[in-house]
């Protein structure tokens, strides 16, 4: 709860969709995972002795990251994508009255989230079988978060006179735009999906 409340308060104060705010938020999430990975690799947290109380040392860092991750998805307006559990995604998919319609952006996001979480779980399980596997999984997750923080630098702030508060991506063409429901941002790029 601490990660969620701190992340939500900071991003609300500095602007939910401000580029620097998002960059900092994802950097901090990545570094909290990397701290847990460092603790495992330096044997502060023993990887092969699950009965040791020292395994509890890494939990606050990972819990903070998961809380901040949920707060970030809410701040960005993606309430239909729970980022930590799949139960509500399956429920939302099964109860969607427009499940079989051709254009259903929220269904596409939910199905994509479920698929990506499944693929991430498979990759994480495969990596965890290696020697020091759990540490490797945390290194990969932390580095992905840090890279996402860097990716936010590829966005520029929406124009002051624009009615949208969403950042605009610099890249002119996005091959995933139809799948993700992205609006055309004109010749300068694509806007993030509008909520509603």
Enumerate the strands of the largest sheet in spatial order, edge to edge or round the barrel. 1-2-4-3
Shape descriptor: globular
Percent of residues in beta strands: under 5%
Can you write the helix and strand succession as a string? HHHHHHEEHEE
- Radius of gyration, whole Å: 18 Å
Largest sheet: 4 strands, antiparallel
Q: In angstroms, what separates the terminal alpha carbons?
A: 26 Å
Count of individual beta strands:
4
Give the averaged pLDDT, no decimals: 75
The helix content, as a percent range, equals 55-70%
Q: Which structural class is indicated by helix and strand composition?
A: mainly alpha
| Low-pLDDT segments | 169-175, 184-190
**Helical stretch tally:** 7
Short description:
By secondary structure, the protein is mainly alpha-helical. Helix content is 55%, strand content 4%.
What key attributes describe this structure?
single chain; 7 helices; 55% helix; 196 residues; mainly alpha; 4% strand
């Amino acid at each position: 709860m601490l990660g969620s409340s701190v992340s939500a308060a900071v991003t609300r104060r500095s602007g939910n969709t401000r580029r620097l705010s998002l960059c900092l938020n994802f950097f901090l999430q990545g570094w909290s995972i990397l701290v847990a990975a460092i603790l495992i690799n330096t044997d502060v947290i023993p990887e092969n002795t699950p009965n040791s109380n020292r395994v509890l040392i890494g939990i606050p860092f990972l819990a903070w990251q998961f809380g901040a991750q949920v707060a970030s998805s809410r701040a960005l307006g993606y309430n239909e994508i729970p980022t930590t559990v799949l139960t509500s995604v399956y429920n939302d998919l099964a109860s969607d009255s427009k499940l079989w319609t051709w254009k259903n952006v929220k269904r596409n996001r939910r199905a994509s989230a479920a698929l990506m979480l499944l693929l991430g779980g498979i990759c994480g399980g495969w990596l965890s079988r290696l020697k020091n596997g759990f540490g490797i999984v945390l290194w990969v997750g932390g580095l992905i978060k840090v890279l996402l923080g860097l990716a936010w630098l590829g966005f520029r702030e929406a124009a002051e006179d624009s009615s949208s508060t969403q950042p605009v991506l610099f890249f002119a063409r996005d091959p995933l735009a139809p799948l993700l429901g992205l609006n055309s941002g004109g010749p300068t790029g694509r806007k993030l999906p509008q909520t509603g």
